[in-house]
Amino acid sequence: MKILFKIFSFFTNFELFFLKNKFKEYGSNIKIGYLPIISNPRYITLKNDITIGNNATLYAIDNDLFFDTTPKLTISSNIYIGHNVSIHCMNSVTLEDNVVLSDNIYISDVSHGINLDQENSIMKQKWISPGPVKIGKGTFLGHGVKVLPNVNIGNNCIVAAGSIVTKSSPPFCVLAGSPAKIIKKYCFEKNNWRKTDHEGNFKE
Q1: For residue 48, which phi and psi values (nearest 5 degrees)?
Q2: pLDDT at residue number 167
Q3: What distance in Å separates the CA atoms of residue 167 and residue 100, rounded to the nearest whole number?
C-alpha cells in the first residue's frame, strides 16, 4: 500500500506542478493530497497555508447545457480541508480564514432543475444557483456535513457531524440536525456556550 500511495503522490505532484500557474491565485504553503479533481482552476483562488486532504473535488462550473457562467471559488488563508471533500461552485463559494472542514463534506451553490418532464431526465435540465455560499472565519464543519446553496454560515460557528445546512446562521452558533438548527450560542457575558430555543434565544 505504501508503494501505491507513493505512486498516487507522485502523479498528484506532477499534475499540480503544471496546474499552479492556471489558478486565478495560488498562494504559499499549499499542500494537496493525492488524486484531487480540480476543474477550471482559472476560477479558483487558493490563498496561503492551506491543507487539502486526499480525493478532494474543487469543481468550478463555467457552463451547463444552456449558458455560460463565471464562478468564483475562494479558499482563504489558514484553511484545513479533510479527505473526500467536494466543493461545487457555479456562482460563488467562499471559505474565509481559519475554516476547518472535516472529512466527507459536501458544499455546493448549485441545484438541478426539477421540472416534471416525461421526455427528459433531470440531468438534462438547466442547472441553477439559488445563491452563493460563504463559510465564515473560524467556523468548523464536522464529519459528513452538507451545505446547500444560498447559505451564509457566520463566523466562529460549529456545525455538528452529519448536519445538512439549508439556511444561513449568525456567528457564534452551534448547529445540528437535518435540516440544521441552532442548538447553542456563545454567551459573552458568561463566557460559555449556552443552549437556545428554536428561535436562537438563550434558555433559562
Answers
A1: -115, 155
A2: 96
A3: 19
